[in-house]
Design the sequence.
């Protein structure tokens, strides 16, 4: 039954994507559009296959910094959210700074990070971590605020310590919110990695896109875009799958 419902919900967008690609292919073919201006889907697939070794090398580089930056960003985000929630006065002092930090454009931080840390891996990881940090921090804070107040008051009445209430009640109840932030950060991490590679470096999908733009290779630009979209979808799907496993395990443990 679950497989049938998944298939029923999943086929409409697949059909729409196939139809759009078909319309795209026919429009380019019948309109005699120049391939350097707007390549057809078949041309994009063919060229991507031809240049697969180089594309895969740049994809691996993007995956590497994406995963490192994501891990650093969400880890720091969860720790900071927990500190803001647990330590009195921290939230009142630092919460406005969190909001203000999001008013600085990501593209403007890149050159500053390069000036401070050079052209190596570190400024790219910091940029991705900053992009991933905010969504998971805010989602985690919201999760802590949605704790069942009746259960919270009951645990206080029986003498439970604040640390025990946090570990046994607040943190487990915040898991759905944390995973919502993780899913947003997962998609942002890919975008952050590409932006970081635009700003500096000699490898990665962002760097590959700059090279193809300079060569007026629109087909290879589309190859990069398709891979970036695919990475975002796969990473989002992985986090969603982990969410089901963790929340199911937490519910069994609670029961």
Sequence:
């Amino acid at each position: 039954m679950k497989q049938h419902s998944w298939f029923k919900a999943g086929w409409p967008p697949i059909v729409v994507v196939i139809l759009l690609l078909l319309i795209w292919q026919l429009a380019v073919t019948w309109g005699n559009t120049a391939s350097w201006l707007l390549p057809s889907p078949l041309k994009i697939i063919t060229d991507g296959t031809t240049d697969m070794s180089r594309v895969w090398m740049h994809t691996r580089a993007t995956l590497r910094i994406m995963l490192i930056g994501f891990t650093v960003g969400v880890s720091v985000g969860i720790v900071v959210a927990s500190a803001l929630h647990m330590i009195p006065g921290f939230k009142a002092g630092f919460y406005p700074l969190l909001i203000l930090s999001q008013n600085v454009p990501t593209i403007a931080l890149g050159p500053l990070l390069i000036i401070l840390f050079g052209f190596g891996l570190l400024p790219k990881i910091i940029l991705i971590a900053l992009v991933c940090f905010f969504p998971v921090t805010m989602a985690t804070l919201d999760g802590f605020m949605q704790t069942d107040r009746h259960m919270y008051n009951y645990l206080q009445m029986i003498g439970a310590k604040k640390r025990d209430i946090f570990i046994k009640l607040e943190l487990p109840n915040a898991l759905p919110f944390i995973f919502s932030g993780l899913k947003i950060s997962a998609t942002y991490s890919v975008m952050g990695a590409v932006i970081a590679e635009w700003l500096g470096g000699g490898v990665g999908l962002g760097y590959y896109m700059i090279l193809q733009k300079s060569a007026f290779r629109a087909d290879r630009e589309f190859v990069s875009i398709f891979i970036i979209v695919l990475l975002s979808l796969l990473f989002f799907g992985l986090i969603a799958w982990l969410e089901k496993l963790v929340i199911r395990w937490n519910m069994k443990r609670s029961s």
